Amino acid sequence: MDPVTLDDVEAAAERIKDRVRRTPCLRARFIREPIHPNLMVKLECLQVTGSFKARGANNTILSLDGAALERGVITASGGNHGIAVAYAGHASGVPAVVYLPERADAAVIGKIERWGAEVIVEGDVWDDANSIALARAERDGLTYLHPFADPAVIAGQGTVAREMLKQSSSIDVILVGIGGGGLISGVVTAAKAIKPEITVIGVEPVGAPTLRTSLDAGDVTTLDRIDTKAITLAPRQSAAINLGIIQKHVDDIVLVDDAAMKTAAKWLYREMSIAADLSGAAALAALQSGAVQVPDDATVCAIVCGAGSDGID
Known about the structure:
The protein has twelve helices and ten strands. It has helices spanning 6-16, 53-63, 66-70, 80-92, 106-114, 126-140, 151-167, 182-194, 210-217, 240-249, 258-272, 282-288, and strands at residues 25-27, 39-43, 73-76, 96-100, 118-121, 143-144, 173-177, 199-205, 252-256, 300-304.
């Protein structure tokens, strides 16, 4: 049995309805340089905290009992999950601690602090920061929130697909950026339950093929190194829960390089006035670069999963 079901996603949607935005799902029309004749973009970059992560973080915090909340929450993040946990903690009146790797953007630190969370920058990549956060959670008795390997997080992220297919039931293909796999795990769970014939394709950086490598190996693997500026798509290791869902339901995972993500981010800004970070532009980059081929008569939707300016600077 799947660890997360459509019923879980439906419950999450009800739970978080007063905490997150119903983001637009727009047709890419009235533009000079079309990428595909039936392209749509799901603008999670317009979510409360600038990414879809607000969905999973709020569903998780709203699912905790009083004792877990009273202890305070702690997490590690490449950026967007940390902002989301800080926001969810603020909204619930719960103290939050966020560990970030040294590669994290200074603007992210400021956003987390403005929501009232404590920020600690330590470790080279997310995996390092996460090990330190886990140790502190154990030492101080804090409630640890995983950014992707948690059924409540996955169910929260699944509300993106539920919302998309309510907005446009004609979508045939969904393109999803992959970091640890929380978003695509939730999206494919909801999308395939609602519309079994739909195709869901994941997109990873060439320099951080975490899930592609694990799929090829048939088990959770750890990358030796990370070589991408899209740090929110760059854990060295995923988790068994995410890999299991992806193995069972996701149709393919393709890779794009940083240059393709930057080109896609510039297209979004130039053609649609959307400011997406490199990670947020990854799904579109797969289509624009030709890593994914979609027939002209099919409707394809790219999830623009995060806001930022690193793709257009």
